[in-house]
Structure formats: structure tokens, C-alpha cells
Amino acid sequence: MATYRSDSDLEFLSKCSNEDLGLLVSILTVDPKDGNERHTQTLTGTTEYLFNRENPQVYWHLIAAELQTFGAHSGMTLLRGRRGVLYREILIDVCKKVKANIDKNVAIETIEHALLMSVLKKSLEKMSKDELQNLATELGCISAKITPSILMMSIQSSIMTNPTMWNFMTLTILQQLGFNVGKLVLSAGTTFVPRTLPIFGLLTGPIGWTISGLWLVSDIAGPAYRVTVPACFYVAALRQKYMVANTK
Hints:
By secondary structure, the chain is mainly α. Helices cover 56% and strands 0% of the residues.
């Protein structure tokens, strides 16, 4: 069983809802390709999980510990007494994997933002002219010439004025990686994507094409990255949701 290392960048998970934590548990424990449990995970064998399966708030620290362990070299994890590495180290490693340019010393949310923007930029650059135009129409972007750079600025502006966009894009990426995000999109009260948002339900539409992360799917190599990459995207989305909720 993994042992949690005190980590200021993951402490906010203790304030997240059972529903929100449920998807993180799925990312860490289930292989989306076949729906089977990951052989390398230990979370589902713990007493806390077995007795509180539908109440992950009870064992949030074990969820965090599982993520920390996936981010560490297995041999070093054993030497640490089943303790992994801190989330910042995992996030920086993921950024290197997807070739996102970052400053290691800035705030954690700034690094997470750089990760998402890197995926968005690469995806935009792979779109056809028709796809770019469709996306521009969806975003209400009016320009004589639609380019990936113009759309990047438009989407970044949308994120600044409506943080829900961040969560929407993250869920789109996770869906394209094979994870079931339906409950978080459709449920009331704790939803990431409100029905009032114009792009609600367009996970397979223009926005979906843009941030589908299809290049990312083929680029993720190794079992650890197949966990830490989507986990970092989702932790980033949870942090944004938590920060927005606590600034109201």
C-alpha cells in the first residue's frame, strides 16, 4: 500500500466532492482500454477503499499517495517505504513528456496552465482550414484570416473570462483518452460544464476536435505516463474548480 507524503499541492483534494474524486480514482486504478484494474495500482486493495468505495473523501490521502507512487520509479518507491514523489515533480515530468515549455519555479497552477496550453497549441496546429473555421464559428471569433494563433488567443481569452472552459477542455482530453466523464458533464450541482454554456455537449464537435489530444494518445509511452498524464490534467481541472469555488 502506498504511503502519502505531505504535499501542499495536493491537500486541496481533501475538499473535493466524492463525485469529483471518483474520476481521479478511475484514472489511477482502471485501464480505459479494457476496463480492467491496473496491475500496478494498490489503492483498491486497501481497507479504506473496500469499506468506503463510494465515499472517496474518506481516503483522499490514499488517492494522492497512489498518484505520488505512479510518478516515482518503482525501485525508488520501495526504498522510500512505498512513498512516491511530490506532485510538482510529477507535473514537471509530464510537461517534459509533452514538450511543454515551463518555469519550474512558478506557482503550480501556472505550470498546469502551461501544460494545457501546450496540448491546445499542438492540436490547433494539426487542424485543417475547415476545422479551424468551424472552431472559429463556434467560438464567435471574427477575423479576416483564421489561424491557430488567433484561435489560441480567443480560447485563452475565453478561459480568463469563464474558467469553466478550462474544465471543459480537460474533460474533452480525458474522454479522448478513453475515460468516462459523462457523470461530471451531465450531473447537476457539481457539474464542470453547466448547461448554460454555449458549447455544452460538444465534446465531439469543433472544440472536441481542437483539444482531442489524439496526438497525445499515440505519444504516451509507458504505463506510468498513461496514468500520470491524464491524472495531471484532471488534478489541474479540480484545482481550478476548487479555486473558483473559494473565491466567490
